[in-house]
Amino acid sequence: MMDIAANLNMVREQMRCAAETAGRKPESIRLIAVSKTKPVSMIREAVACGVRDFGENRPQELAQKFVEVPNVRWHLIGQLQRNKVKLIIDKAFLIHSVDSLALAEEIEKRAAAIDKIQDVLIQVNISGESTKSGVSPEEAPDLCRKISLLPHIRILGLMTISVKDFSEDENRALFAKLQELAKKIEQMEIPGVFMQEISMGMTHDYTAAILAGATMVRIGSGIFGERNTKI
Ligand SMILES: *Cc1c(COP(=O)(O)O)cnc(C)c1O
């Protein structure tokens, strides 16, 4: 039996330690519990422990769980196909995975139709691995500029995924690059583009992410246990 309360205590303690080491306020870092593939019963347990932010990477699953677990914030963290935007547009608190103008234009259209301003993060492929989604760091500023012209989208920051099996030091260096990119984009002072959120860090690298300036960490297996299916 997975002890979600104990796992959460441990994660929160580690987050607090990392924040203190970095000289940051623990409250400035939001824990997103990644509940993909996990049953609603486990999500309810996390809610009982005070978790209010959940991450899903499949639009359909987010849409279902949104109905079953009300009064929490749902984050879409996985790759989003344009034809799935309609499934989550009225449900997603924050979309972490915007990496193309075409996707942003679909979000704009759907958000406009329900009179919503959709908060998003731009996913950046910092590592340059070809298997990763995300815009390249070089193209990110221009993408932000173009998306900023869409009135129903608000860019709140950047998101990235690190490389599996990277060491703590390698992760920190990689995450630091995202933080630098965010600073660079902030200095461009693009109207309507904010760089207040940096979503980075998963179960195996969230300490490094917090040391490098993450404001949101996305933790799945460290809270809910390993997943059977790899998604
Ligand atoms: C699955 C997933 C996570 C959580 O991964 P864990 O290693 O289980 O913590 C975080 N971010 C994204 C984008 C994911 O797909």
Automatic annotation (TrEMBL):
Function (record text): Pyridoxal 5'-phosphate (PLP)-binding protein, which is involved in PLP homeostasis.
Keyword hit for Mitochondrion: no
Tagged with keyword Isomerase: no
Species this chain originates from: Ructibacterium gallinarum
Ranges in coiled-coil conformation: none
Residue ranges of every copy of the Alanine racemase N-terminal domain listed in the record: 7-227
Upper taxonomic lineage: Bacteria, Bacillati, Bacillota, Clostridia, Eubacteriales
NCBIfam families for the chain: YggS family pyridoxal phosphate-dependent enzyme
Cofactor(s) named in the record: pyridoxal 5'-phosphate
Entry-linked Pfam families: Ala_racemase_N
N6-(pyridoxal phosphate)lysine modified-residue sites: K36
An example Gene Ontology molecular-function term: pyridoxal phosphate binding
UniProtKB keywords: Pyridoxal phosphate
Protein name: Pyridoxal phosphate homeostasis protein
UniProt family annotation: Belongs to the pyridoxal phosphate-binding protein YggS/PROSC family.
